[in-house]
Design goal:
It is found in: Membrane. The protein has about 950 residues and is an alpha/beta fold. It contains 16 helices and 47 strands.
């Protein structure tokens, strides 16, 4: 697209030149202009990773300005009621479409016909009542369809006919009342792998109503349906491995009737949560799944005798995982799991358990995973010490306040321990002494104020330690020196004020440390406490009390030893007052990629601040008081890809012009004072694909005419929320939308100008070529005719005598003959006054002589000047009607050879002439006739002297 030029005021120079409208295009008579491709400035959406995000925009219809190139569209959380057949016709490249949480009650037939590449379709939480015939026509490649929480009661026989590639279908929380509705769905889905039909109104499940026996179905969820009878009389699910038949809120018992144990012989996971199951029913279930079941979920079994069910289910020899969440268990006795000798995973989460017998898990000598989170435990149960094979233990969200030295005794294989969200206030040095293989320890969100050396000696294999959300006030020297394998340390949201020198000694493998939201001050950084973290990749110090009031270099930069650090976030300012950063604050960070100095009340940045960080790609200096930024700041970081400069009080983005950030892709500059944006800014950032300028106050006049057009039509850079940009000046246009402003009066279409000028140039060239080829002699004659008219007008009132008797017109190649033969005879012997050619004023010379003698040869006819002389003389002949022209031929030139010289041929037809070749034998006669011709009267008449017979 060419960029317009504003009238009267200087506008940015246009990008496109006249050269792209070539002669070929003009010769093809292209009379119309190309309509610009719709750009990225969408009224209600934004583009992210080629996905149009239009969620939560209060839309009533599908927007029609979405680029046809997107492969994803998110229209969730809007107010769309009806989907029309034309809504997606131009979005044939879509691979995922999200329409959840709208008010959709109708979808027109053929709506999805063009979406041949669509893989995922989400229609959850709408108001569909029925699925009509051919509703999903065109979706042959769809693999995932979600219809959760609608009001679907009816399914037409061919609704799912086109969905031959579908592998996942969720049609739960609807109003399906009969299994035949499910059959209508299944008969057209040969590749369906997972079907979720939970929380409908199915009252029976009879296999004879499912006639299709070629199903690949592996996951079937029928939970929360009021199924009274579950009867399988045929092998309709030969591939089923996961089955959920959990109960509904309606208090109904389900009759379980499986005629052949082999019908469900592949099911490994069974969920009967919430069902009212008697011991006899459980025996039937046990018999059905006795050789395949590995995971049994019996959550929320509030109206059953749970202990009896556990004893029966644990006799299944293949059972290894038992889930018992939300079962109102208060106490676990010693014989509760006595039969469960094969169980390796036990989930007792979300029960009000207060006490566990010390021998409750004695029989579970192979247990690897134990979840006791969200209970009422006040201490670590002694029972866990009897689980030497335990690898994961979750005790989070209990009421544990104290940890003792023997709490985790014998757990030498434990790899993950979760103790977060308890009330632990302190640790003991010996508490983790036996956890030699522990890799993950979660202690966040307790009330820890002291670590008491708990991490100085033990936990040699710990890789992740979470201590955030506690009440730690200081990190002492060598506090973590026993954690030589630690990679991730979370200390954020504590009350840390003091970080002693050597606090992180021993953490040579640490790559990530989070210290944000503490009370750390500048003096702690100056101690060099981070110098031991030689392999650190990420350091977060946001929201601390670190403040520098000077920009002069530091004697000991705080991060000078962290050469491998890639991400650094320095604190936002808690206290009042402006701050600066020392010019060598980042010294040593040669591999830094991401730097955030957000909200630290910076007044300025030293020009050489980033000379130490040549690999920097992301820079965030938002929420500061940087009213001006020097382009030189960016010279050392030419690899920068993302720049955040929101809320910095900047008045202009012109610094980007000289900064020349050619790799910059993302620019967020919200809530500043930018009023005018020129194309020079964006031509200096050719890689820019995302621009966020929300909350700026724009000037709505011709100065922003270019930007308004560019925001709408450029196809590379997405200008986020451009349709909501508001004018702040001039006052009469305040609160007007920038893109609603009519800027046609400001813009001259350079493409149109180029088109017209190029057309005119080519037409002129063609006219000149034609004239030169066919009319050049006529034009030359007209030129001399004009000169003669001027001469005649100039001398019409003058009666001056002729200056010469004759003007001699000849070619320079014939000059020897004129000098040797003609001049001696005419001037020497006969006494005539003769005038030879005068280049400066031919017309005056001819009109100043009584006669004009043309000495004609072949070279004479080819001479441009001689042609002009004879043209002037012939004009005098015809205009004044005077016998002024004498033709003397030095060569015999046949008439047919005179054809190109049409004016000479015309003269020969009306004039007499002398021929020198014919006078070779009688030269004296030739000169006598020439003398007589010079003596004749100038008036033309019938008595004129005949020189020679005409050829």
């Amino acid at each position: 697209m060419g960029r317009g030029v504003k009238e009267d005021k200087m506008m940015p120079k246009g990008e496109s030149g006249c050269f792209k409208l070539t002669v070929i295009v003009l010769l093809l008579n292209i009379g119309s202009f190309v309509v610009p491709v719709t750009g990225f400035s969408l009224k209600f959406c934004r583009i992210s990773y080629n996905i149009a995000i239009c969620s939560n925009s209060k839309l009533n219809t599908v927007p029609q300005d979405i680029p046809s190139t997107v492969n994803g569209l998110d229209l969730s959380v809007n107010k769309i009621k009806k989907i029309q057949a034309s809504d997606f016709k131009n979005l044939s490249l879509l691979m995922q479409l999200d329409l959840k949480r709208n008010l959709i009650w109708q979808i027109d037939p053929g709506t999805f016909a063009n979406l041949i590449f669509l893989k995922k379709l989400n229609l959850n939480n709408n108001r569909l009542v029925q699925l009509g015939d051919g509703l999903f026509d065109g979706l042959n490649n769809l693999t995932e369809l979600r219809l959760y929480r609608n009001h679907i009661r009816a399914v037409a026989p061919t609704s799912f006919k086109s969905l031959t590639s579908l592998t996942f279908l969720d049609i739960s929380n609807n109003k399906l009342q009969h299994i035949t509705r499910v059959h209508t769905i299944l008969q057209h889905l040969p590749n369906l792998w997972e079907l979720v039909v939970k929380n409908n109104d199915l009252t029976t499940f009879q296999s004879w109503e499912l006639t299709n026996s070629s199903l690949k179905l592996a996951y079937l969820d029928l939970s929360q349906n009021p199924i009274a009878v579950f009867r399988i009389t045929a092998d309709v699910f030969p591939n089923l491995t996961w089955l959920n038949i959990g109960g509904s809120s309606k208090k109904l018992q389900m009759k379980w009737d499986v005629h052949n144990k082999t019908f469900l012989s592949r099911v490994s996971t069974l969920d009967v949560s919430g069902l009212q199951i008697t011991s006899d029913d459980m025996e039937t279930l046990r018999a059905t799944f006795n050789s395949s079941l590995t995971t049994l979920r019996m959550n929320a079994m509030k109206r059953t005798h749970l202990a009896a069910l556990i004893n029966i289910s644990c006799t299944i020899p293949t059972l290894s995982a038992l889930q018992l969440e939300r079962n109102s268990l208060h106490y676990i006795s010693s014989n509760f799991f006595q039969v469960c000798i094969n169980v390796t995973e036990l989930d007792l989460s979300d029960n009000p358990i207060r006490y566990i017998d010390d021998h409750a898990f004695t029989s579970l000598d192979g247990l690897r995973i134990l979840s006791l989170n969200r209970n009422k435990l006040t201490s670590v149960p002694v029972a866990v010490r009897n689980l030497p094979t335990l690898e994961e233990l979750d005790l989070s969200k209990n009421n544990i306040s104290t940890l003792k030295c023997n709490d985790f005794a014998n757990l030498k294989k434990l790899r993950q321990l979760s103790l977060h969200q308890n009330s632990i206030s302190a640790l003991q040095e010996c508490v983790f002494k036996d956890l030699i293989r522990l890799q993950v320890l979660k202690l966040q969100n307790n009330t820890l104020s002291k670590l008491n050396g708990a991490f100085k000696k033990y936990l040699p294999n710990l890789k992740q330690l979470r201590l955030n959300g506690n009440k730690l006030t200081a990190i002492k020297h060598g506090e973590f020196m026993g954690l030589q394998s630690l990679q991730n340390l979370s200390l954020h949201e504590n009350q840390i004020e003091k970080v002693e020198n050597g606090s992180f000694i021993g953490l040579t493998n640490l790559t990530d440390i989070q210290l944000q939201s503490n009370y750390i001050k500048k003096t702690e950084l100056d101690k060099g406490g981070f110098n031991h973290l030689i392999n650190l990749r990420r350091l977060d110090l946001r929201d601390n009390h670190i403040k520098y009031s000077y920009s002069s270099p530091l004697p000991h930069p705080p991060f000078s030893q962290l050469s491998r650090l890639e991400t650094l976030a320095i604190p936002g300012q808690h206290s009042r007052g402006k701050s600066k950063l020392p010019s060598n604050f980042l010294q040593g960070l040669t591999n830094l990629v991401d730097f955030s100095a957000r909200n630290i009340q910076l007044l300025s940045l030293a020009k050489d601040m980033f000379k130490y960080t040549p690999r920097l790609q992301t820079l965030d200096i938002s929420s500061n008081d940087l009213m001006e930024v020097s382009p030189e700041l960016f010279f050392p970081i030419q690899s920068l890809k993302s720049l955040y400069i929101s809320r910095t009080s900047l008045w202009s983005l012109d610094f980007l012009i000289d900064a020349k950030l050619t790799k910059l892709e993302f620019l967020q500059a919200r809530k500043n004072e930018y009023s005018i944006l020129t194309d020079s800014i964006f031509s200096s950032t050719p890689a820019l694909v995302y621009l966020d300028l929300q909350g700026n106050s724009f000037t709505c006049d011709c100065d922003n005419a270019w930007f308004s057009k560019w925001a709408l039509y450029n196809t590379q850079t997405q200008v986020f929320d451009a349709y909501n940009f508001v004018c702040n000046y001039p006052p009469d246009l305040k609160n007007t939308k920038l893109l609603d402003l009519d800027v046609r009066s400001c813009i001259v279409d350079t493409e149109f100008i180029c088109y017209i000028s190029t057309t005119c140039t080519i037409l002129l060239f063609m006219a000149v070529s034609f004239t030169y080829q066919f009319l050049r002699w006529q034009l030359a004659y007209a030129y001399y005719l004009f000169l003669a008219l001027l001469f005649k007008t100039k001398h019409k009132n003058k009666q001056a005598h002729d200056q010469y008797d004759a003007f001699i017109s000849y070619n320079t190649h014939d000059e020897p003959w004129v000098i040797r033969e003609m001049l001696p005879k005419l001037e020497g012997e006969q006494g005539w006054r003769l005038c030879k050619p005068i280049i400066d004023n031919i017309t005056d010379a001819i009109y100043g002589s009584r006669k004009t003698i043309c000495v004609i040869s072949r070279r004479y006819l080819e001479s441009e000047w001689c042609s002009r002389e004879i043209q002037v003389a012939s004009f005098r002949l015809f205009d004044e009607q005077k016998d002024v022209l004498i033709l003397v031929f030095l060569e015999e030139i046949p008439t047919n050879q005179l054809s190109p010289y049409y004016r000479m041929r015309k003269l020969l037809k009306t004039r007499t002439y002398l021929s020198w070749p014919r006078a070779e034998e009688h030269p004296e006669l030739f000169w006598e006739k020439l003398r007589q011709a010079l003596n004749t009267r100038e008036d033309l008449g019938d008595d004129r002297f005949l020189l020679v017979e005409r050829a």
